[in-house]
Design goal:
Dna Ligase, domain 1; eight-stranded antiparallel β-sheet; five-stranded parallel β-sheet; 3 domains; alpha+beta; Rossmann fold; 20 strands; 15 helices; 27% strand; globular; D-amino Acid Aminotransferase, Chain A, domain 1
Length: 446
């Protein structure tokens, strides 16, 4: 096991990783920008290193500064959390070259799954069901038009290196495709440094279902069941839940086996999440995230398995502590992403938190990094906290989440807590099985 781990992230996930490390008896190093000097993850870590000014490209995305921080502090491994460098294959290889352990998958697997075109090809070879689409990147407009006609409009233009809802566009006919293709290519180049675009059949009103896997170096490839992440706004998840309602268990069991078989063929190591569209009672592979997910706590609460702890142990060469037959979900879990933003127009909110009071009680968990007096900076993602609740049934979990949202106090800035209350109180959500476009279609009603 490692003696010291550097946490290459900020916010609630840095706090979450710090706790897992300290419970394993591992010393922690927090890195931070100048803006985050007073952040909770810095305060609770055993050591901290300022790695640069506020912009992320000069701090949290500065791989050389992070490696220097490891050398200064004697950290043996780096946990990247999610976002930033967590799916950067070059960074993972740099750590390997410096004899440092990247707490995540092998860099070649990050590279394979990071290219959406390559990932889709590989999954097709492994027998994973995929969305009908182009065999690779489209060469030019002529190729894109021919491919779209063969698939049938509407189609979805997607950046091969995309993620986070960027680099995607639905087009309904030839004119829209002609207008949209250069825009999406430019957006892809700006955000991801790669303007390769591929095309998929647009599946109207699907659900977003994802399968959590964990794999070690001792030929153990396990799944931890599924999550439903269909409550989204602009392709960004808002509320997640586990298990997914209204899907036949035999159908899910078949998909679990397909996913685990694919991981075994790949020789995958660490945590991973395979994301699928679900429509007309069929699953279609979208992408694989080779990292810890924001919504991992609902799986932890449901299975009683500390995913971050296991992620660290697997990276250190240990076996997964349990077997597949022992991973049995208990009850139902829901996560609400609480952001620093207005609930109506979603304008980001920065400023000082004058009062903070968390909810409490049985089955309640709040992952956060805020405290009374904390100054929320405007430089970074606006996620403040994740409210995770678990109940005996889905209905019980919804009621518990509403009760918790009524208890939480975050004064001094705006949050989207009211939006969460409206979603959880709606009849559509209570009935389950809402598609990914439900929230945007119903914002006015809410």
């Amino acid at each position: 096991m490692f003696d010291k781990v550097l946490i290459a992230n900020r916010g609630e996930i840095a706090v979450r990783i710090n706790r897992a490390c300290q419970e394993l008896g591992i010393s922690t190093v927090a890195i931070h920008s100048e803006a985050d000097a007073e952040s909770m993850h810095v305060r609770i870590a055993d050591e901290s290193v300022c790695i640069g000014p506020n912009p992320v490209n000069k701090s949290y995305l500065n791989a050389h500064a992070i490696i220097s921080a490891c050398e200064i502090t004697g950290a043996q491994a780096v946990h990247p959390g999610y976002g930033f460098l967590s799916e950067n294959a070059s960074f993972a290889k740099m750590l390997d070259d410096h004899k440092l352990t990247f707490i995540g998958p092998k860099h070649n697997h990050i590279s394979m799954m990071g290219d959406k075109i390559e990932a889709k090809k590989i999954m097709q070879e492994y027998g994973v069901p995929t969305v009908p689409g182009s065999k690779g990147a489209v060469a030019d407009l002529k190729d894109a038009l021919k491919t779209s006609k063969d698939i049938g409009f509407p189609v979805l233009l997607k950046a091969s290196a995309g993620g986070g809802g960027r680099g995607m566009k639905v087009v309904n006919d030839e004119k829209e495709l002609t207008d949209a293709l250069p825009i999406i290519k430019q957006e892809a180049l700006s955000f991801f440094g790669n303007d390769s675009i591929y095309i998929e059949k647009f599946i109207d009103s699907p659900r977003h279902i994802e399968i959590q896997v964990i794999c070690d170096s001792h030929n153990n490839f396990l799944h931890l069941h599924e999550r439903d992440c269909s409550i989204q706004r602009r392709n960004q998840k808002v509320i997640e839940e586990a298990l997914a309602p209204e899907i036949d268990q035999a159908k899910k069991d078949k998909l679990f086996k397909i996913c685990i078989d694919a991981m075994a063929k790949m020789g995958y190591l660490g945590l991973g999440t395979l994301e699928f569209l679900f429509a007309d009672n069929e699953f279609y592979f979208m992408e694989m995230n080779t990292r810890l997910q924001v919504e991992h706590p609902i799986t932890e609460m449901l299975t009683r398995i500390d995913l971050v702890r296991e992620q660290i142990c697997v990276a250190a060469g240990d076996k997964i502590f349990t077997s597949q037959e022992n991973i049995k979900p208990l009850g139902h879990s829901i996560e609400c992403r609480i952001n620093a933003e207005n609930s109506t127009d979603f304008k980001p909110s920065a400023g000082t938190i004058k009062m903070y009071h968390p909810p409490a009680g049985n089955g309640i968990r709040l992952d956060t990094f805020i405290y009374s007096g904390y100054k929320v900076p405007h430089y970074y993602d606006n996620l403040l906290a994740k409210l995770i609740v678990t109940g005996r049934t889905r209905n019980h979990a919804i009621k518990r989440a509403l009760r918790s949202l009524n208890e939480i106090v975050i004064d001094g800035i705006e949050t989207n807590i009211d939006l969460h209350k409206k979603i959880l109180s709606s009849n559509d959500f209570k009935n389950g099985a809402v598609p990914i476009n439900w929230l945007e279609k119903n914002m006015n009603k809410l």
